[in-house]
Amino acid sequence: MSHIFINQFKICLKKKSLIFWTLIFPIALGTFFNLAFSNIDESEKFKTIDIAVVNNEKFNENESFKELIRALSTDEEIFNPQYVNLEEAKSLLDNNKIKGYILLEEKIKVFVKENGLSQTIIKSVVDNFYQVGSAVNHIILDKQNLKNLVMEDLNRNYFKDVSNEKVSSIVTYFYTLIGMACLYGGVFGIKAVIDSESNLSKKAARVNVSPVHKFKLLLVSLVVALIIQFTENLILLGYLINILKIDFGNQTLPLIILAGAGSFAGISMGVLIGLSNKKSEDTKVGILMSVTMALSFLAGMMIKNMRELVDKNIPILGQINPVSMITKALYSLYYYDDLNIYFQNLFSLIIFTFVMITISYIILRRKKYDSI
Amino acid sequence: MIVFSTFLKIIKKYYGLILLYLVIFTIFSVIFASTNKQNNVFTAKKPNIAIVNMEDSPLMKSFLTYIKKNSNIVEIAKEDLKDALFNRKVDLILNIPDNFSNDFLNNKNPEIKFERVPDSYSSTYALMYLNRYLNLANLYNINNISEEKLIGYIEKDLKEESEVVFIQKAENNYTANYLYNFSNYSVMAMTIMILSLVMSSFKKEVIKKRNMISPISYKKQNRQLFVFNLIITLAVWLIFIIMGIFFFKTAMFNRQGLLLILNLLVFCLTVLSIGFLIGNHIQNKEVMGAINNVITLGTSFICGAFVPQEILGESVLRIAKIFPSYWFIKNNDLIVILTNYNIDNLKPIIINMGIVLLFGLLFYIINLIILRLKLKAK
Predict the structure, then answer these.
(1) In chain A, which end has fewer C-beta atoms inside a 10 angstrom radius, N or C?
(2) Does one domain contain both A181 and A322?
(3) What angle do CA A325, A331, A332 make, to 5 degrees?
(4) Inter-chain contact A153–B135, Cβ cutoff 8 Å?
(5) What is the pLDDT of residues A64-119, one digit of tens each?
(6) Chain B interface, best mutation among A115, A132, A191, A292, by max B CB count within 10 A
(7) Shortest Cα distance from A166 to chain B (angstroms)?
(8) In sequence order, what are the beta bridge partners of A110?
(9) Same domain for A28 and A98?
């Protein structure tokens, strides 16, 4: 028994492609994530909006609007205005130098090309100008003998953000990465199947005539796979936490348990893929890779809103996707103090693994060959 | 034709895998483009707001009517709020303090605490217009106008809006660049995978030696190999044109659409050259898969295929410039905002295309040099 164990270990560690997919690739991808997302939190902050104001008579007469634009561009730096004539404003917008321009006629008009955040802010500022104007009129009409109008604090903020301080949305990219790495562990499962199923490789055929029970052999290679994959997951976690400084919350034990359960799920999926067809190893690995990529995509590896979108519209897809389960469990460790959602997803992950193993067992049991 | 039919045989051998790739990447692209399509028109989406501790004062009632008009109010039990936020069922939770109306009207400046989905535009926008209501109320209040009166006034005030004029609405494929930027990933992954699978079968040592003694000259074989690869590349290109038309319909049949398609063609040719280089010099299919994945996902992340370039940091973009993907994606972004087709605006686009082509040429030359060196070594 022990020599099978040690030999399996050696075989797995010597096969560089296995180590690449399960360890090097996730680490490389994590590094790319870190490069690409290092600036995102910064860029979500507000940027000054380039606008133009048509410098016509109406504008020059309207002292209060002039003052408003000046205040918004110097005191608050919301706008970066250029005062130009109509022709120039049109050409600036045409060449995308500005987001929109403001033209004062009977009413104030906002000219834009598309419907985006900056455009809405421009509109909102002008709306607000109108509304305050209307309010001032109401006050003056209401208080006939008004001496002095109090106009202070017109842009006060009445809201205070008490959101969980852990608001970074970038972390979820790294969580899906862990999910992806777990499923890539399936390459070990595929290898174990190919090496023990006599209709899949010559080596397996040879091993099958040896006096070692087939299930024992498969079991040992799966245990070895699990140990290696689990260790690699811990290395990956260590890299993300200590070198890239990604926040995984403070609960170490649940994190380690999840890494183990994830490895198990990935390997069991690999076993099923290995058993499901008689194609070459390349094809099987190809299937595993593309299925994993698809699941990671749906869990939000390329777009962060993807998982929510799936959960909202096709909830069943989110519930059976192991990458999504791992991502959600990790996110709950980061975001929540209690472990409810974590256990929900851990449990789903275990069910997923159980289903994979059961189907594999049904395919595998009592297989005997007259010829191969 | 004998070389050509051999290709088809190899393709047939892998058709399942190729089809799987094709289906997955097509679905990826469509989903990617459609999610971004929705995200872009951000005003159309009303935020979901949950309110805790609603007061029953006239001011609050009127405020609530205003909130209802601009957002969807979601009723959720207090203990489920955090989960709702986690599952994005609500974008914003407002926690109104006790005695808010009273404190507000007595100028005590009470604060409404909120929790929200991180970085969501809809919540930022919601806070903007909620503040507007309270600021107007405050303006009336500090000028000593009673609660009943100010409610009526505000309703009238808020109907005052500016006029927004959409001029020359960009040719309606403003979001087409999402599909074509994403194609950096799908086009590269698909093309390089198919090319390298086929090429590596040809370059196996024994097969290569056998082919070399065949009556078909080495040159001719290589030429046919190239033509075949070109056909595969053009097929992938065609898939993305069809996808664009399917997705953006007639919007693809204008100058912008044509430029996008042309830009993609230029990029496809460079990808062909990369695929040729990899297929020619790496025989091990596993190594090939590894290189393919690292190149496609790596460049996609740092060159802006997934995360827009304007969001990526300066330092990342500086690194990204050494990949053709950067110039390809930059060009897509430039093309979709193009409205004025004058030389000044078109020049950078043409230059970027030139750079992408130069990359292709560079990879081709590297390929030739390595081939020559290998031949000499023998």
Answers:
(1) N
(2) yes
(3) 90
(4) yes
(5) 888 888 888 887 677 888 999 988 888 888 777 888 899 988 888 888 877 777 78
(6) A115
(7) 9
(8) A102, B164
(9) no
